[in-house]
Specification:
The chain is of the alpha+beta class. It is built from twelve helices and eight strands. Helices cover about 50% and strands about 15% of the residues. A four-stranded antiparallel beta sheet has the order 1-2-3-4. A four-stranded antiparallel beta sheet has the order 5-6-7-8, covered by helices on one side. Strand 7 and strand 8 form a beta hairpin. Helix 1 runs parallel beside helix 9, helix 4 packs antiparallel against helix 8 and helix 9 runs antiparallel to helix 10. The longest helix is centred in the middle third of the chain and has 38 residues. The chain is globular, with a radius of gyration of 23 Å. It starts with a helix and ends with a helix.
């Protein structure tokens, strides 16, 4: 999931574990714990692109990592509070600034969601978020900066429990997406991917964020604080259950469509498109082709209007068989990829699991994950291509229309 969602989940779990003892500090350290696994993206600064891509959601997202790191981080935080440093105004000011910066980033992102969906920016949204920021700021000022909880009374094991649950819930949520999470590293590089929720889903994140902010406004002994925090955890968990139900619906419709069209497939995959759980991307595979289609739960009939046929062209990678880049791309895409050529003859690899943003799934420029393949004296090098090509309007506009069953 996106970083903001993982921070919210970590903060809520931290509050559930230790909120009664340390108040908003449990949310703060929960947010830190929920962020730690994603620090593996730092590999982008120290290694090549393919290695960094393989390392992400690897060991730092595993059960083994979640079982070991809390003992170290718990000891450091316990010593920090045992020293009494947390009582210093400067230290608490940094904590207050962190929370306000987090809220500011979330507010900016939420205010521009309508623009990404092909609509227009609404100043009213920004006004509402600004008023919410005032409310949050007041709550943090009273409950965090000015409050004096006896944090020094917490035990080492309190902090170990907090960091274990905030770290382990991160990869568990990530495994619900299509990206794949290596939960069993270093013993296996198998990527767990339940494909039930998008890597960014505002319907999951926004209510969770609202409940968390409301919980942060109340003092640590108030029952409203626990009620709002558990309401956020409950709503987000219930939504995940609904995504399982949506997936079973889509799978049934896709299977019936494939049978009716006499498509003899070897396997298939279904996953929600970006920012929603209504429009699903579906890919079936036979020996030489992939069959792509989208289905919206708002479609008038439980049937795929059209399926696009894409040749695999996996044979174009034959000269690079056994090379490291080729093996990583096959592993990363779980074999759901096509190879094509642009107008200059450059090879392109499209990862089909995340589908296409635009109206035409046969257009390479609209695939969410795609790579340019360069031959360097017989050695294959891959570079991920960013952005969308050949669109006069933002492709999210077409996505939004399709979500509504149009």
């Amino acid at each position: 999931m996106d970083s903001l969602t993982q921070i919210i989940l970590g903060a809520a779990v931290g509050e559930a574990v230790l909120g009664r003892k340390v108040g908003n500090r449990a949310m703060l350290w929960g947010a830190v714990g929920g962020t730690i696994p994603d620090l593996d993206v730092a590999a982008n600064f120290f290694t090549d692109e393919m290695t960094a891509m393989a390392f992400h959601r690897g060991f730092m997202h595993s059960f083994a990592f979640a079982g070991m790191l809390p003992f170290l981080v718990g000891a450091l935080v316990h010593r920090l509070y045992a020293s009494g440093l947390y009582r210093q105004p400067t230290y608490r000011a940094w904590g207050l600034g962190f929370w306000m910066a987090l809220y500011g980033m979330a507010a900016v992102g939420l205010s521009f969601l309508p623009v990404m969906a092909g609509g227009s920016f609404s100043p009213a949204t920004l006004v509402v978020l600004a008023l919410g920021g005032i409310l949050v700021g007041r709550g943090l000022w009273r409950n965090y900066y000015r409050a004096e909880p006896d944090v020094g009374a917490t035990s080492y094991w309190d902090w170990v429990h907090l960091f274990f649950w905030t770290i382990v819930t991160h990869p568990l949520l990530d495994s619900c997406t299509a990206y794949g999470t290596q939960l069993f590293q270093p013993f296996s590089d198998y990527r767990v991917a339940f494909n039930i929720i998008s890597v960014a889903d505002p319907i999951y994140t926004v209510p969770f964020l609202i409940c968390l902010l409301l919980a942060a406004y109340y003092l640590r002994h108030r029952p409203q604080r626990r009620w709002f925090n558990w309401a956020g955890i409950g709503l987000s968990s219930a939504y995940l259950l609904f995504t399982f139900y949506h997936k079973t619906q889509v799978n049934q419709v896709f299977e019936e469509t494939l049978v009716e069209r006499d498509i003899r497939y070897e396997r298939y995959i279904t996953s929600p498109t970006i920012f929603n759980n209504i429009l699903w991307n579906c890919v079936a595979e036979d020996a030489n082709h992939f069959y792509l289609g989208t289905y919206s739960l708002y479609d008038q009939k439980p049937y795929f209007k059209s399926l696009s046929t894409l040749p695999k062209h996996h044979e174009w990678l034959a000269p690079y068989e056994g090379q490291r880049t080729t093996e990583i791309l096959r592993w990363f895409s779980d074999g759901y990829y096509t190879v094509s050529k642009d107008t200059l003859g450059t090879l392109l690899l499209n990862d089909l699991r995340f589908g296409s943003i635009g109206d035409d799934p046969t257009r390479d420029g609209d695939f969410v994950f795609r790579f340019e393949l360069i031959d360097e004296n017989g050695t294959l090098r891959a570079t991920q291509k960013r952005g969308f090509e050949g669109e006069e309007e933002l492709p999210f506009g077409a996505l939004w229309r399709r979500i509504r069953g149009r």
